Amino acid sequence: MQKTQLIFIPSPGLSHLTSTVEMAKLLLARDQRLSIIVLIMKLPNDRNVDNYITGLSSSDSNPTSRLCFKQLPNEDLDSSNPKPGWLFNFIHGQAVHVREIVSGLLKGETSGGDAPRLAGLVLDMFCTNFIDVANGFGLPSYVFYTSGACCLGVFSELVSLKFEHGQEPWKLINSVTELSIPCFSRPVPSKVLPAVLLTDNPMANIFFTYFERFKEAKGIMVNTVHELESYAIESLSHGKIPKVYPVGPLVNLGSNQASEKYDEIMKWLDDQPDSSVVFLCFGSMGSFEEIQVKEIALALERSGHRFLWSIRKPGPKGAAQFPTEYEDFQQVLPEGFLGRTEGVGKVIGWAPQVAVLSHSAVGGFVSHCGWNSTLESLWFGVPMATFPLYAEQQLNAFELVKELGMAVEIRIDYHKKFNPEEGDKQEIVAADVIEAAIRRLMSEDSDGGVRQKVKEMQKISRLALMEGGSSYKAIDRFINDVIQNIS
Q1: Are 193 and 72 in a shared domain?
Q2: CA distance 62 to 60
Q3: CA within 20 to 30 Å of 279's CA: 167, 442, 460, 485, which one?
Q4: List of residues 6+ apart from 56 with CB closer than 8 A
């Protein structure tokens, strides 16, 4: 039996790494011929990645020696004074190290023994520059796309507008234009497109260059379920991008390490009635300025619903740093809020999101609409209220609310400004808007049958990964194609 090896290269950061590892686990469980190396690019001060890898190494769910991790050398990076394009310069700087690793593996093949045959590189959406490395060794490249099919279709359409039709997407900024995009059954407002792509600056061009290279790959694995995004997946099959494999949902069910905070949070949830708690959590980069925190607090207090709220302290302005923990929540919350809501709500910093969403007490999720969080919410059958912040989250929110009817809208077009220019104020979502959405989210029927649709998708998404399911079959097709492409 010919042993086969793949190299996965996720972009820096925990959210892309966790999806990559879950994808690797599924492939290894499906075919004993496979082994996988995950190359890790770690940003300075990102302890989340270290903790995650440590947790994997000590976990019973870690799949054997056929999955290994190699941390690429740390490059010099001043995260306190980032320059435009710093992240992509960081990624590009790793090319020499990736090339050395690939060369070493190929030399191991030719030296005899039972070394597996290297079958190609599986690249994150922001790592397509490494296609050049693969081409240099005559190896196939694949893309692992950590967002959904609708998002992939939108990026493909914007790339086509720019490079094939000579239209500059930045001209859509602040436009009321609605676009006809094949992966959506309804027009898409330009205001929900990723803001970074609608700018007339070098950063947008860098993104477009990365996305344009998708067409050079042999195939694209997408972290989605065919039944969830069937309209988009069918449209992609008739487009100009490589073969698409819908292989999700990839949910990291074993990510929570026991700790004093973890135990305290779970004990509090154990004391709450079923489906009574609204959970508020905004991802690894999710944080708000004090004025917005106070509006959310007012909304929660007025709603009367039980709540578990993860609040993170914003990093320094202009610095590429993750949110941190507050030493005292009273410095950001309205005066007397904690006392008035004692017994009804709990304010926390770090949140074990998967464990919380899986708890029977949780009945709703106010989310930033990151794709990982979206899939986790569907996996556990918890309806969402949309509060997007950055990246493609507005597009995800639009899809969930307007296209799929699986979420309640707080806002679908809110954009957080991470580096606002002088005099450019953050937009504030008012308490009454948030309160009304929470009430709709937590009602028995939810908003327009959202709760029922989410419960149905919970069953469908789990069946998709079981033998005979749509994602199970897609994974088989991918493995077979990988083997064929090197035979």
Answers
A1: yes
A2: 6
A3: 460
A4: 21, 62, 69
Residues 292 and 306 in one domain: yes
* 86-111 residues labelled b (16+ CB within 10 A) or e (exposed): ebbebbeebeeebbebbeebbeeeee
Regarding whether 178 and 128 lie in a shared domain, the answer is: yes
For the chain, how many structural domains are there in total?
Answer: 2
Residue 335 and residue 246 share a domain: no
Give the structural domain span for 11. 4-252+465-485
Residues 461-473 pLDDT 10s: 999 999 999 999 9
Are 294 and 257 in contact by the 8 Å Cβ rule? The answer is no
For the chain, the maximum distance between any two Cα atoms, rounded to a whole number of angstroms, is 71
Are the CB atoms for 44 and 51 separated by under 8 Å?
A: no
Structure tokens at 18: 């966790």
Question: 422 pLDDT exceeds 50?
Answer: no
Residues 169-185: tens digit of each pLDDT: 888 877 788 999 999 99
Tell me if residue 68 falls in helix, strand or coil: strand
Do 339 and 457 lie in a common domain? yes
Contact 248, 462 (CB under 8 A): no
CA distance to 6, 122, 444, per residue, from 480 (Å): 13, 15, 45
What is the residue whose two structure tokens read 């609708």? 150
pLDDT at 75: 66
Q: Which of 177, 157, 176 is nearest to 167 (CA)?
A: 157
Task: Look up tokens 């009945």; give the residue.
Answer: 363
CATH number for the domain that contains residue 229:
3.40.50.2000
Q: What is the pTM of this model?
A: 0.92
